[in-house]
Amino acid sequence: MANTTYSYEFKILKVEVSEDGVAHVEVHRPEALNAYSKQTWTEIGECFEQIKRDGRVRSVVLSAAGRMFTAGLDLKEALTGPLGKKADPKEDAARRGYYHRLFILEFQDAISAIETCDKPVIAVIHGGCLGIGIDVISACDIRVASEDAYFMVKEVDIGMAADIGTLQRLPKVVGNDSWVRDVCYTARRISAKEAIAVGLLSRMLPTKNEAMDAAMETARAIASKSPVAVVSTKHLLNYSRDHSVREGLEYTALWNTLAHNSHDMATAVMASLKKKQARFPNL
């Protein structure tokens, strides 16, 4: 990675931003196989909200330290929270459910912050990517992995349906409803080779280091483009995915009435004509 110019301060996440505007977000809880505690997903939400508002950041690489990307939800911690709490027969079920719903929505919003962050996010997966790991990578823009990576939608194995984004995003990522139902109903292990065959991954590299290098190269290429053009492209792709073609076109026309006022368009055209590398100011 290029020289770090500054970093964000978190307890679990290590976040460094290079001089070319690439943020590297690393989940650093290797002693727990990067299992997601409340602290982890809270920091994920806060981190990507901060990145969204940081005009110096142009692209993001998300990875994890240690043996694997994530073992999924921290079940030991979960048993002391809403998931493990035994129902009190004297407690009103509707009132208990009301607050449990708020807990789930808070969790969803934290992971959705990756998707709603306007800067493209590239996930680098190595080793296991279980349970909530699928929620996380489904919210990313691009996914690359090492050959040792494997994936499991594990929620049915703990007696629940996935509820943080997998069931909503994964069908749109791979475009194969039969395959999605297969892996979500069975919680079976998916190899990196199978994941790239169905379109979950865009690239598979022999090792984690090579996957990181490939992701960083892509992130730097993105960072070299007009930040107005890049954030507009991500925003419009997300909108169009969830709306009809006509709605997407109409919204794009409205969005670009503002975005076309950027000086970046003239800068890009002139650089192209002069066969030079364009330089764009931060957002």
TrEMBL record:
Example of a GO biological process term: fatty acid metabolic process
Locations listed in the record: Peroxisome
Keyword check for Lipid metabolism: yes
Pathway: Lipid metabolism; fatty acid beta-oxidation
Gene Ontology terms for molecular function: delta(3,5)-delta(2,4)-dienoyl-CoA isomerase activity
Record-level GO cellular component terms: mitochondrion; peroxisome
Pfam families assigned: ECH_1
Domain of life: Eukaryota
Entry annotated with the keyword RNA-binding: no
UniProt keywords, alphabetically: Acetylation, Fatty acid metabolism, Isomerase, Lipid metabolism, Peroxisome
InterPro entries named in the record: ClpP/crotonase-like_dom_sf, Ech1-like, Enoyl-CoA_hydra/iso, Enoyl-CoA_hydra_C
Gene3D superfamilies, A to Z: 2-enoyl-CoA Hydratase, Chain A, domain 1, Lyase 2-enoyl-coa Hydratase, Chain A, domain 2
Family statement: Belongs to the enoyl-CoA hydratase/isomerase family.
PANTHER family hit by this protein: DELTA(3,5)-DELTA(2,4)-DIENOYL-COA ISOMERASE, MITOCHONDRIAL, ENOYL-COA HYDRATASE
Protein name as catalogued: Uncharacterized protein
